[in-house]
Design goal:
This protein is an alpha/beta fold and about 725 residues long. About 40% of the residues lie in helices and about 15% in strands. α16 links the parallel β10 and β11. α4 packs antiparallel against α5, α10 packs antiparallel against α11 and α14 packs across α25. It is globular.
């Protein structure tokens, strides 16, 4: 048994470890150390606050709020804890509650500079700094009301650059999708077609904020001129864009305005739920650009987490998109097949916008030093990942050198970031003397150096198991260089005007084609003449204009709203959770789309937290439900503390809803059962409201699943109830 002194010493060590990790900004490790300490010392309010800071820095303001609330119970008169509560509430978009917390902080300590700044916009030169402080973007005082808003017209084209602006926080050199976004949005902002704006989604506020055009244009310019992320000019423009994302003008939309997303959004928390709210409130049209369906077609070459994220996003896209833009006929066919399998009765219009644009003309820079001696080389541009199948290419180079000798085989220059599942190819390159000498791996190079590589190479090689388009193929042809690519998927289209095709995944054919192109100069010159004669690249301004035309409000009838695109049968159980699976399922889309109101947290594997009074469930009912008495089952999870709730369930625009009062002990899970009388057809709407009782709060409640069936359908009721524990709700 350890003595009291030893135990105290061990706790001190845990706390000090957390402090060291916090000071080093190792937030996850610091949170783990603080959590271990607090498991023993639950009444240490300052460390509880530090734990909250770590969670906030890890992107979990709701978890931080829980910690600050716990610290508040221990030290209710502490001004700084009230300040931290205000910051967490502000990050969650709960401005009125944040204002109250800042006011309490100032009443407890009239000299609190952070609270004074938040309430009155006063300078914070004397505000504390370091790990205890919270860096907030400059903004108007919260007492001035919500952020200034700007109305955009029905003919406006809004480009959502959320993922791009997150990418540039840590990267300067763009990859394929970022390059498309930068070029298209830049040209749209400078074009004379439909009014174009660029915006970004702010998850904390649940709104889109305007990014000034001049700011975005400067970002695009700097991204093409260097790779140094510590360059003061780059740091300044990135900081300014982040300020716009967090505190810029909130956009209001006129009916018919188009929100066009050229990038990725499946990683943004509750993005589609906010799209759904904007569609219902403003009547916007949501138009995503689908670059490919690769995680659903070749999932074996994708990270496991991406596969499930993409499947859920695709399912949600099919509920929310009013039109889908795609880069090739191949991607269009993939989208149509997958969409029809998910929602057989729905046809979402799609438009093919080929990405056959020439890269911007830049003055080529110097070649990398290892190529400065004039040695011949072949260029392979693409992320080093499993799907690009660098392994096949490296094996082909081994075969070429062993067959013809190192001096007769050109070098291979691979340009691209390191991606996932590339370890086998990288191990082969690292362990082979031949490959270490003949294969050069480059990343984070500026456009000037890339232009020099295109100009200096013999030809380019682009390998892949599957592509939606293949931008490096277009860039190769635009530079007048032959591209050697496998004959499949979107590569047939990007390479149609001059690429040389080899049999997919065939090392012998690849070796033969590389050798002939490398050694037969006359053959290569004839192919380059064919490229010059047949390839007619467009300007990015033309691509942007095409996207603007395809996104314009046309005469086609509008598609149904999101939930109206799904007709779940009576008696089906619907989980309100982040559902697993490698294929898009209607259940995935429904889990997100049933949630209404701004009180919902992001879906989790077990279910979802909701704030009473701000959260509703909407379940579309089939025609067979008209005139039928229904039985509704709702699986509810209480947080650690007991809660008191009032459920109201009924059909939209129907008679007075059925109500039920529930008292649930802390940590308890129950099944609430509500009997609805026969009524005409209409969506089932369940409101979750707080019920007042001394000492029983209801800051959040967990929802796990819902099921509605005919009252007499005993089989459906049993199938739902049997696997779940049932507790009798309080009267």
């Amino acid at each position: 048994m350890r003595s009291g002194g030893e135990a105290r010493s061990g706790l001190d060590a845990m706390r000090e470890k957390g402090d060291r990790l916090r000071d080093a900004r190792a937030w996850a490790d610091a949170a783990e150390a603080y959590g271990a300490y607090l498991a023993v010392c639950r009444d240490d309010a300052p460390i509880m606050v530090q734990y909250g800071h770590c969670l906030k820095e890890l992107g979990d303001p709701r978890g931080a709020l829980v910690c600050y609330r716990a610290a508040e119970k221990l030290l209710p008169q502490d001004s700084d804890i009230q300040l931290q509560l205000g910051h967490a509430l502000k990050l969650l978009g709960r401005q009125e509650e944040a204002t109250d917390a800042y006011a309490r902080a100032l009443s407890l300590d009239p000299g609190n500079p952070g609270a004074r700044h938040e309430l009155f916009g006063a300078p914070v030169d004397d505000a504390p700094t370091g790990p205890d402080s919270v860096a907030m973007p400059p903004a108007s005082p919260v007492t001035a009301g919500p952020a200034a808003s700007s109305r955009v017209g029905a003919d406006a084209l809004l480009f959502d650059a959320s993922d791009l602006l997150d990418y540039v926080r840590h990267n300067r050199a763009p990859t394929g999708i970022q390059r498309v976004q930068l070029n298209v949005i830049r040209e749209a902002l400078q074009g004379e077609a439909a009014p174009a704006l660029v915006c970004a989604f702010d998850p904390a506020a649940g709104a889109w904020r305007l990014v000034p055009a001049a700011l975005f244009l400067e970002l695009a310019r700097l991204s093409a001129t260097g790779i140094d992320t510590a360059d003061p000019a780059w740091e300044a423009v990135v900081a300014a864009t982040q300020q716009a994302v967090q505190g810029g003008t909130v956009l209001d939309f006129a009916p018919g305005a188009a929100l066009v997303n050229l990038g990725t959004s499946w990683w943004l928390p509750d993005y589609l739920s906010r799209v759904r709210q904007a569609k219902a409130r403003f009547g916007i049209r949501y138009i995503p650009f689908l670059h490919d369906c690769i995680p659903l077609i070749v999932p074996e070459h994708c990270a496991e987490g991406l596969i499930e994220e993409f499947a859920r996003w695709f399912a949600g896209l099919c509920l929310h998109a009013d039109r889908v833009l795609v880069n090739s006929a191949c991607t269009a066919a993939d989208f149509r097949r997958l969409q029809r399998a998910l929602l057989p009765g729905l046809e979402i219009p799609s438009s093919v916008v080929p990405l056959d644009a020439a890269p911007d003309a830049v003055e080529p820079g110097a070649l990398p030093s290892r190529l400065a001696d004039g040695r011949p080389f072949i260029l392979f541009v693409g992320t080093i990942e499993s799907r690009k199948n660098h392994l096949l290419v490296f094996q082909a180079w081994l075969s070429l050198v062993r067959r013809h000798g190192a001096e007769r085989v050109p070098d291979l220059v691979c340009v691209g970031k390191r991606g996932w599942l590339a370890e086998e190819a990288l191990r082969l390159q690292a362990r082979s003397d031949i490959l270490r000498a003949k294969v050069h791996l480059l990343h984070d190079i500026p456009d000037t150096v890339l232009a020099a590589l295109y100009r200096g190479c013999l030809f380019t090689l682009y390998n892949s198991f599957y592509e939606g388009w293949g931008l490096p193929v277009t860039e190769s042809l635009a530079h007048g260089k032959v591209a050697l690519v496998p004959e499949h998927s979107g590569l047939r289209e990007s390479g149609a005007a001059g690429a040389v095709f080899f049999a997919p995944n065939s090392e012998p054919d690849l070796v033969e084609q590389v050798w002939r192109l490398s050694t037969d100069a006359a053959h290569r010159a004839a192919l380059e003449q064919r490229v010059a004669a047949q390839f007619r690249p467009r300007r990015w301004a033309e691509i942007a204009a095409r996207i603007s035309r395809e996104s314009a409000l046309g005469e086609a009838p509008p598609l149904p709203p999101p939930l109206a695109r799904i007709a779940p049968p009576l008696g089906a159980s619907h989980r309100l959770a982040l559902l697993p699976g490698s294929a898009p399922l209607r259940a995935m889309a429904l889990a997100d789309a049933m949630r209404e109101g701004e009180g919902w947290s992001a879906l989790e594997g077990w279910g979802c937290w909701a704030r009473p009074g701000e959260s509703r469930l909407r379940l579309p009912l089939p025609a067979e439900a008209a005139g039928a008495a229904l039985r509704v089952h709702l699986e509810i999870q209480a947080p650690a503390e007991p809660i008191l709730l009032l459920l109201r369930a009924g059909r939209e625009d129907g008679a007075a809803p059925v109500t039920q009062r529930l008292e649930i002990p802390g940590g308890g899970r129950i099944i609430a059962v509500l009997a609805l009388p026969p009524e005409r057809a209409g969506d089932l709407v369940i409101a979750i409201d707080p019920a007042c009782a001394a000492g029983i709060g209801a800051e959040r409640v967990g929802l796990c699943s819902v099921m509605a069936c005919r009252e007499e359908d005993l089989a459906a009721r049993l199938a739902y109830l049997e696997p779940r524990a049932i507790a009798t709700p309080a009267d």
